[in-house]
Structure prediction request, 415 residues.
Amino acid sequence: MSKQGSPVSVFERAERYVSKMDAAISGSRGHDVTFSVASVLVNGFSLGSDDALAILRDYNSRCQPPWSEAELAHKLRSAECFPSALGTGYLLNGEAPQSAPLRVSSAQRVEALVYEEEKLKSFAGALSAEVDAVWLANRSVVDPSMCAAADFLQALYRQDKGEKVLVFTNEFSQGDVLWPDEAEKLPDGGRYGVWFLTQPVSGEWLPNPRSTPPGKKSRRIAECVMDWRYLLLESDNAPARLWLGAVVQLPLRIAAIYTSGSRSVHVLVRVDCATKEAWDKEKAELLQGVVALGADRGALSGVRLSRLPSCWRRGKEVAGEYQLYSPAVFQKLLYLCPDPQPLPIVDMPVRRDVIGEIETSIKRELAFSLDGMTLSELSALQIKFTHFSRQSEKCRKAATCLESVIADRQEGRVS
Prediction:
């Protein structure tokens, strides 16, 4: 009861609750702390955006340093995207329920989560018709059409810290190339495509306690991981345009988006966890918001292979038989941000007019004598134009022209 004897409003109760929560301090997982407050307001007390923002502003005065108004709004939107395991309004009838644990196990949470295409359609909204390779490239920190596989790895991994990346043309092997030690062997394509292990590794061969028999040496196990930096989201169920329309609205630290060379689109999320246990906790929290939108639960494993962007996938196996693609398909990089912030891509600034720039460059690039270019230079130029061949007729024609020149060069018809 208030001093006048009237019931305490939900707003006042939420204010009091948040006043007892820890303030966010930079360097001490401040993002997570502030998200917890936002989740309490949105999910625990079911406050509307105006009331929740008012309390969050007051809380923000205790944070070191304070968040900007835009960042506070993003925290609330993030909380709306990721509902609490305790349900909506779990604090409306008093404190958090004592009959249920505050932490629900990841197994319990995942069991009830299923893909709901209608939910995905509703969440993606009009963006499902807008977001494509051009839309993403215009907001990408690095122009994806200019990024080779080696550039991609260099942008996301720390050579100066001794980090290495395993690259595969046979996904069941122990890795065909250890980058950057064997950078000169980095493949540009493979029979089934090219993969990479998303977590940085030491490159050492270590005993695997889970092998049969135990102790078999491997260089692609958890014991080899140097940093639990990334979490991979992919969807084999959701239509690509709907999936992308939803992904760009998620307040996640998205480092890269790229295609598999088939129907799925991979999303590499930066999480920077110190241990596998912390990574598992991050995964459990993330699952609640993304599985219903189409994320494949099976892809959310800590030691996970993903398609290496800017490489060719030359075929696939169908009913036990190898089927050659004609032409080969490209594992296309769509978006790259080496140091991502927890903001939706839809709120990122437009950095370039990629189609305008690339169409302007076609005359300039093809004006020089192609005979003077090396095969690798021609291939790089072809990839650049192929990247947007679906969105630009000029790019399509330029890519086709270069494909012919490269074929002639390889067959020895051009000296």
Summary: The longest helix spans residues 393-410. Residues 96-112 have pLDDT under 50 and may be disordered.
